[in-house]
Structures are given as C-alpha cells and as structure tokens.
Amino acid sequence: MTREDYQHRIEQFLDSVPLSSSSFISSSQLHEAMRYSALGGGKRVRPLLVYATGEALKINVDLLDLPAAAIELIHAYSLIHDDLPSMDDDALRRGKPTTHIAFDEATAILAGDALQTLAFQLLSNPVQGICAENQLKILNILAIASGPDGMVKGQSIDLAAVGKQLTEDELEIMHNHKTGALITASVEMATYCMETKEQANSEEIVKKRRSLTEYSQAIGLAFQVRDDILDIQSDTETLGKQQGSDIAAGKPTYPSIMGMSATKEKLFNLNKKALDSLIDFGEEADSLREIASFIVKRIA
Amino acid sequence: MTREDYQHRIEQFLDSVPLSSSSFISSSQLHEAMRYSALGGGKRVRPLLVYATGEALKINVDLLDLPAAAIELIHAYSLIHDDLPSMDDDALRRGKPTTHIAFDEATAILAGDALQTLAFQLLSNPVQGICAENQLKILNILAIASGPDGMVKGQSIDLAAVGKQLTEDELEIMHNHKTGALITASVEMATYCMETKEQANSEEIVKKRRSLTEYSQAIGLAFQVRDDILDIQSDTETLGKQQGSDIAAGKPTYPSIMGMSATKEKLFNLNKKALDSLIDFGEEADSLREIASFIVKRIA
C-alpha cells in the first residue's frame, strides 16, 4: 500500500475509535476536544512506520491498526500538552488553533490525559492474532517510550534547555527522548504483532528487529534535524504551525549549533544510515525506504 | 495485616519504584516532582482496597503490590492535574503545597503525565504468578476506569457542574466517574491477580467478584459523601487541604442538595449496603469491612 493509503487507513481507524461515550452534562466537550486533537491532520508518521514495518515483516495489516492508533493517540496527547501556555505556549498546530485555544485550558489538559489513557486501553483489549504476552510487550514498549524515561523526559529537558547553549551531543540526547523514543517504539511495536511469543523471539525476527531499530533511530533523529531546518526555511502556512517558533523561544537547534551547511550534511548522513540498516531486506522494505526519503525531503 | 501495615507496605513499594532515572540537565526536576506527588502522604485507600480484596480471596500479597502501586500512581497524577490553576486551582494537598506551587505548572503537568504512563508501564512488565491474559485484563480495568469513560469524564463533568444546581442522581453520576471508577477498579483488579485465566473466571471467583464490586460501588459513593460532610465540618489543618473549598468553588455537594441530616443517613445506608455485600464472606473479608468503617468515620 502507498503512504496515502496508510494515511487514509489510520484516519478512518482513528475516526472509528469510540474516543469517549458522550452523555450527561458536557462531557461531550471532552469528547469533542479529543476528536479535534486526534483527527483530521498530521503526517501520521508514527502509524506509517507501524504499517511499513509490518510490511517489511509480512504481517497482516489488520493486526497493525491498534498499535498504529495507540501511538498516534500518545503523539496527539503530547502535542496538546506541549502547546499549553505553561509549556511552549503555541497557538497554531496543523493549521488550526491549538486545543487550549479552540476549547479552554482545563479541557485541553483533560483531553490530553484521556487520549493517553485511551492508547493503553486500546492496546489492552484482547485481540485475535496476537498472544497476550506479545500484547503486553507492545504495551510495555509504548509505555517506556512515552513515559518518564522517554518522551516526557525529552519534553522536560526541552523546557529546561530554553535559552541555554547545548552541545550537539546534548541536543541529540534531548531529541532521542522527545521524538526519537516514539519513532523507535512505532517500529518495535510492529515487530511484536505476531501470534506467538516464539515467533516474535525467533532468531530471524530478533536479527531483523535489530536492523529495524537502527533504521528507526536514524530516521528519528533525521526527523528532528529536518524540523530544525524547516523552522528556519519554511513558512507558517506550509508548516501549519508558527515558523521560527523554536528560535523565537530561544530553543537550541542544529543550525544554531553547527550551522546550516553542516546540518544538511548531517541529515544526508542520517538518511544514508537509515537506508544502510535495511540492506538485508528486499522490496518488502520499500515503504520504510520511502518514509526515510519523505522525512528528509518533507516541506511541512 | 492491619491497615497501617498495608499503608507502610505501599509507601515502601512506591518509594522503590524507579520513578524516573535522573540524568542530564534537569530532568531530575521531573523526577523530584513525581516523587513529591506520589510519596509521603495520603490515605492510600485504593492500595488498601487492592490488598484487602486480595486477603478476601486469599491471594499472595506479593502479587498485589504492582496493581496497588499502579492505581495509586493514577490517583496521584489525577490530583496533580485537578489542582492546576485552570482546574480546581488548589494550593494545598495532603498538608503540603500542591505540585504546581512547589515546582511550576509545566513540571506539574509533565509529572502527572509521567505518573500516568508509569502506572501502565508497571502493569505491563512481566510478572511471575499472574498470566499475561490476567495482566492484560488488570491493565484494561485500570485504563477504562481512569480514562474518558471513567475518572477523566468525572473531572470533566465536575468542571462543567460548577455553579449549577444538580439533582442527587446527577451528582451521583459525577462521583461514580470521578471517584467511584478507581475505587471499583482497585477491587476488580485484585480479583484477577491469579496464575491462570481459568482461576480468574471460575464460577466461585465470578460470584465473589460480583459481591466485591457491589461492595466497592457502595464505599466509593460513601467516600464522596463523607468528603462532602468533611468539607463543611472539618478544618483545613486536619484535612490537609482547604476546608470549605468545594462550597467556595460553587461545587454541588450532598449537603447542599439534600441537607446535612439526609446526607448522614445516606452515608449510614451506604455503609450498611457495603457490609451486606460481604455477607457470604467470613473473617477473610474483615479488612474490607474495616475499610468501610474507616471511610465512613474518617476525619480527613
């Protein structure tokens, strides 16, 4: 399937998730805020990675919808909370007012909280075709990647880094937590979408998982490097968020640390590293290769 | 074991949980805020219910630590977020400054986020003595109870209800979500802490689970009714939070809807209902009975 096919698939799947039953007084406000934040927009990079990894391992696509949706819900929750006034204080996201602007701050916090819970709820429902051990592993990967040693830690470092001069290594540690952890989790979760524990831990899959993890680490960082370039070279309308906002907020970026030319070279090298990691795969990994190119070349 | 034994046990267990590894710049700030909010205080009612339910079903206490800790982490996260300026705007909790006062708002939001994730992370680690199917079920119970159809929905209703006149039924729906869902989940999670799926779904356990759920629903509501009474009759120092804050915030309470005398009668009836639900249990349910009395008589 093409990238557009998968984007369409996850859009429809997310739309079908009962984001919350609406009843009594205005809990429908919560419901609306959850849908507003999770639906209708975004590149869906993390679900794309789940599906493309599934393709590379010839996994039935139906088994991938729940992990793809769960990780996108975690991403959506993190965006809502990151945009809050006490955090990055952003007014625009995906070309629309951020959730706390479109609704209010309390509703935005609650909608983020609820989207996080919903991700784990989805992954803990029994499913056909994935054993309970593998399901627990998938859930554990997502929890570790998004929690206090993963994404949340990255955001915490990010807030503390405002106005500071970081080294390239420090910047990389920040991004590896803030963005990289979920990108790697997308790939790793997909490698456990199998019927038995033995399949998921077979020699063949363990070897492939290692290559896929390397791939994901390279594109995770490439994604952020490209983001930093776009923050300078793109415009607000194309980005769907405020152009130049990182620099305006005094956040360290690759161009500010190493200059634009070295930043572009770094991006090129990360792309090469990602493709090299897939050397043992045939055309079944073409979707993963396409995502790597997309991340490097994307304009928004 | 006594209530104090269990309170001590959960305190020590929570203290041993790696709330987040600390390294690099100030993610130790996040770590400190998580510990500040989760440790050293609170009645630990939800963990007590996990342990006491385990006693009633003669479950090995070692199997109960993780669910007990996970549900307390969810409770701790909800308190941090509920106290935020855009929500209930409370400055005092458990006799200490609330997390956003002791740290800052961004750190409080992130610490809450991370505590929620950590709860699911703990429950998705493989454990000896509980099969993966039962673990998934335990996790699913917690997710449903705390998410957009449970606790978060309750908080959303609560915010929308400020300054409105609710009926007794409406108030009950609010509390059943906001507080009741997690109290019931504490009891239900414990009933799945078993080696096999067959044990957890045996006729005997299914029947007992039904009685225990009835018990938990009665004490969940009793807990809130007692809270409303204390909000009027206690004082700030004893409560560890601002006395009269519900009334000051224009929140509907049982005494404001039905008067103090009828509220006390309601509390008495709920306590009776809780004890009646345990009629088929012997002395192995004495801890549950003691918790019911504690909830009705507590002064803070």
TrEMBL record, chains A, B:
Entry cofactors: Mg(2+)
Molecular function per GO: metal ion binding; prenyltransferase activity
Record-level GO cellular component terms: cytoplasm
GO biological process annotation, one example: terpenoid biosynthetic process
Tagged with keyword GTP-binding: no
CDD domains: Trans_IPPS_HT
Source superkingdom: Bacteria
Keyword match Hydrolase: no
PROSITE patterns associated with the record: POLYPRENYL_SYNTHASE_1 (PS00723), POLYPRENYL_SYNTHASE_2 (PS00444)
Key words of the record: Isoprene biosynthesis, Magnesium, Metal-binding, Transferase
InterPro entries the UniProt entry points to: Isoprenoid_synthase_dom_sf (IPR008949), Polyprenyl_synt (IPR000092), Polyprenyl_synt_CS (IPR033749), Prenyl_diphosphate_synthase (IPR053378)
Sequence similarity: Belongs to the FPP/GGPP synthase family.
Protein name per UniProt: Farnesyl-diphosphate synthase
Organism: Cocleimonas flava
